[in-house]
Specification:
The chain is 53% helix and 0% strand. It has a domain of 74 residues. The relative contact order is 0.09. By secondary structure, the chain is mostly helical. The chain contains 3 helices and no strands.
């Protein structure tokens, strides 16, 4: 060892002795640093959002119509509240179904990618070759 202190950059972990960053480490959006995901496709998510909006609109029309038919006289405010409540109920109900469907799609993709069906053990040879006895019918 030498008697004099190390110069700047000679210490472990300094800029001079540190290894270079991996390729693409500083850039965002490059394919080299993105992990594979099980998220549903953009088209599936877009269709889900459109289904939620359509259900909200249909629920709003139904809520407005039901409130308008039950009310006599000037009921614009009541009909609007009925339409809003119908829209919220319709949109929330369909949103629950959409979320469950997208999660199921994602899980199905992950199972297919893992090849879970290929690793099943073969049935025993005796069970494959023996035929099942037919029931006797009179």
């Amino acid at each position: 060892m030498s008697d004099h202190p190390p110069a700047d950059g000679d210490e472990p972990g300094s800029a001079r002795t540190a290894s270079p960053p991996p390729a693409g480490a500083g850039r965002r959006g490059t394919s080299s640093n993105l992990a594979p995901t099980g998220a549903p496709s953009t088209l599936a998510r877009l269709l889900g959002v459109l289904a939620i909006v359509a259900a909200g609109a249909a629920g709003g029309f139904i809520g407005y119509a039901v409130t308008d038919l039950q009310c006599e006289g000037d009921c614009a405010t009541n009909a609007a509240i009925g339409g809003l409540v119908g829209a919220v109920i319709g949109a929330v109900g369909v949103a629950i179904v959409v979320v469950l469907a997208l999660r199921a799609m994602s899980e199905w993709k992950q199972i297919q990618a893992a090849g879970a069906g290929r690793d099943r053990p073969e049935p025993p040879a005796a069970s494959r070759t023996t035929a099942r006895a037919r029931p006797r019918v009179r």
